[in-house]
Amino acid sequence: TIKYIKFKDNKMDKNKIIIFDTTLRDGEQSPGASMNTEEKIQIALQLERLGVDVMEAGFAAASPGDFDAINQIAKQVESIKVASLSRALERDIKAAADAIAPAKNRRIHTFIATSPIHMEHKLKMKPDEVIKRAVEAVQYAKSFVDDVEFSCEDAGRSDISFLKEICDAVVNAGAKTLNLPDTVGFRLPYEIADMVRIMSEYIGDRAIISVHNHNDLGLAVANTLASIKAGARQVECTINGLGERAGNAALEEIVMAIKTRSDEFSGLYTDIVTKEIYATSRLVASITGIEPQPNKAIVGKNAFAHESGIHQDGMLKCAQTYEIIKAEDIGAEKNALVLGKHSGRHAFKDKLVNLGFDLNDEEVNEAFSKFKLLCDKKKEIFDDDIRALVSDEIIKIPEIYTIETLSTSSCNSGHSSAAISIKFNGEIISDAALGNGTADAIFKVIDRISKVAGELKDYKVSAVSQGKDALAKVTVKVAFGPSEPPFIGHGLDIDTMMASAKAYVSALNSYLSMKK
Fold it and tell me: Rounded CA gap, 148 and 174, in Å?
């Protein structure tokens, strides 16, 4: 039996809400959220622990890197259905089929636009041509897998009569799931609910109705919950609400709303292991470098914080006065010192598992060595320190240049200097430069040594945990040429300037490895 389908009296359980996670596909399309294969595998394995039903591992035809990541994930996950997105084109569908081939449970997710504006201006196709293309795509996908999902791109702005016509055709061609995306986040909850209700009644038991809501008006989760009430039984979502533009519906918000408001969602449930929500959120944030805003529902750092005296008094008397969800329900714990310089490798490895990492012995040893070095510099080690340290370890960017030493100085006039020693091909190269600020001086001297000029597009510094000795995490976006796309670099260190240098070199190494 396919994992996400449960049966009662030989009928599909209509109370089960299928969770289709697209963090690795639509989530990665969030600006600055690019992930390499190793990082995607780590997230995929954590999504499996979380209990998602379907994982959209990527868009196989988009690039060789996407294909490889999907293929590697398909080989390693056990219980999740692995899906690849594809346009309604044979070459896309074939790439998707090949990428997911190793998976025990497979799905091809193919789509074509159905709104008048998309058909006229993007596709330049007539409605009957779109239906023909859609049917051919589903039939071709069915030759590779039994489970085919079809999406009506921009369904939110499509004519309901045309939605009925095309959905009827693709179901007859073999599609088992019909996805109705609000691709541009345009619709209001009652409008989405009306569309879903009409389509659910029209399709009946012939296919599962799914929704994929974007957050352009801040309504993605509200629209998704309204869709569930109207008959949708699959929801497409991402961890932390990542995604294009303003993002997608946040998985954690949907799941906890269904669980918390069982009075409204009577009998409906998901198979999500809610105690894994926080660990999953932190893993995704650490790898992508995109932190949820502090007031983000469920997983924001202020989600369970109370500053008001009235609220604090109420909490002390009865937690339910101001909290409808317990922090422990999602696996959140207060940052507590649990490991230190006297901790052994076994305890460290156990902590990594609890934090959602799945590393081989070599990676554990490398991470443990860095942990011990951190213990010598930092008095207190928090879970977020370990998450950041290990995420930094698994990025796996080839170390063409590595920083050996760095010294900086600054003066009140704003002019600063940086002297740096970098290892390249076994040789130590040293140089110095002046800049308008310390970070600028560091980046200029790295350019001088590498003889590759970079243009800083974005620079972000954040404290990983708490305290005066908190680790600094620096994320940069650097373009190394007018026609080159920017590359993301991450740096981690107690010293913010060293973290900045590491981040810049990380972006440089990514660029140079791609040029080989």
Answer: 7
